[in-house]
Amino acid sequence: MRPFNQDLIFEKSTEDRRASHFIFEPFEEVTLPNELIRHDDPLLPEVSELELMRHFINMSTKNMGIETGFYPLGSCTMKYNPKINDELATLKGFTDIHPLSADEDIQGVLSIYDETQKMLSTLTGMDTFSLNPFAGAHGEQTGLMIIKKYHEKKGNHHKNIIIVPDNAHGTNPASAIICGFKVVEIKSNLDGTVNLEALDAVLDDNVAGLMLTNPNTAGVFEKDIRLIADKVHAKDGLLYYDGANLNALVGVARPADMGFDVMHINLHKTFSTPHGGGGPGSGPVGVIKELKNFLPNPQVVFEDHQFKRINNKNSIGRVGGFIGNTLVYLRAFVYMRSLGKENLVEIGPRAVLNANYVKTQLKSYFNMPLTSYCMHEFVYDGLKGDTDIKTLDIAKRLLDFGIHAPTIYFPLIYKQAMMIEPTEAESLQTLDHFIHVMKQIVKEAHETPELLKTAPHHGYVKRLDEATAARNPILSYRQLKEKALID
Ligand SMILES: *Cc1c(COP(=O)(O)O)cnc(C)c1O
Fold first, then answer.
1. Over the stretch 162-181, which tens digit does the pLDDT of each residue have?
2. Least confident of 287-291, 305-309, 344-348, 471-475
3. Are residues 362 and 288 part of one domain?
4. Judgement on whether residues 164 and 64 belong to the same structural domain of the protein
5. Residue 242 beta carbon below 6 angstroms from any ligand 1 atom
6. Rounded distance, CA 165 to CA 412, Å?
7. Which of 267, 271, 272, 479 is 20 to 30 Å apart from 34, CA to CA?
């Protein structure tokens, strides 16, 4: 174990030390206007190439990722990202394109946009998708702007309420507020499903829509979804599908058939593009036919034998600079094409099998709010028996075994929630190893609880002050200097 501070405060700079790199391609000299020319030296660490290499190589080994160990982070679908996705997305023909290129020069990329959009439509039953949004939460905002536009066009000016269940992801109410809606929260049943009485009690003419994820955040399929859709539609409300849990259902059930009108897909979850640490992502938004014209600009269409980017005058407008995170949806495209439709439909059943296997193997050790079969993920509500060990302690101890912690303290409806999503990508051996480690941790909880309360012991950092880390993060070299943590 290396001491904590020395490791975090990695000042390597020495005045006038340099790393040089030769540029082999000739470049043209340009003259910049005076106001754009920098007069002070940039504040950068001064290091040799060797020190630079050591720094980055060492940093790269200090993190946990899907490629270093099991990563059962509930709701986040940390599945394997096949390398073929990256190989194709780093072809020069894709990486060297300028976003302002003329349509006729980027027919390949536009055709991938179109084909990805069509594959997503086939899998979800939606009429069309826009690939422009950059994340799930951005997709929510885009989808809610579409709902707003729909009501404005119809003269439903009084409709200003979005209903959100109390087990929803925090981004759902946040997106609704950003779009100027009022959020009304409804209590869920114990299994996280929508409480129909609670829904009836708030459904009135002011309701613009309802946001749901299915399976819900407790890993339970919403069986009453058609009934719920009918109730919302009867008030001329629209149903928004938060697609974060689509992994359970790919090609097996379609949100449009359940009655949803607008949805997003987190391509970085279900369709396997690398994610974490805030990006990069892609959150395509799909809609039923009636809402198609409201999709964000630019829209990609095929006209006169070629793909074009057009601006539709009925659109909600732009949600980003160009046509989304191209190299991310390209990876999702490669993932779908390399699996093919025969294998895409295997994702959900295998993810569900893996989740139920883990859930069942550990059921005598943890409180289970829901004992029925789960979908692709499930929730434990703390350790069984007489112990003061908390979910946080178990999560931290898992890190000592090289396993990433599950999602903890979400959904909020369970006090000691630990939400586990193994994904379809993991082998039986990996699941058995996880089960073995969890049993070991349960044993420690009863025999040597201090070991858990002070975990992790083997990481680069020990237990952190997470509140301060989140509220007052130091993310750049400049900040480190400014906060005088280094000379
Ligand atoms: C991940 C997630 C989101 C937000 O998606 P991002 O791509 O992280 O913005 C929304 N809802 C649920 C249920 C999620 O799990």
1. 999 999 999 999 999 999 99
2. 471-475
3. no
4. no
5. yes
6. 11
7. 479
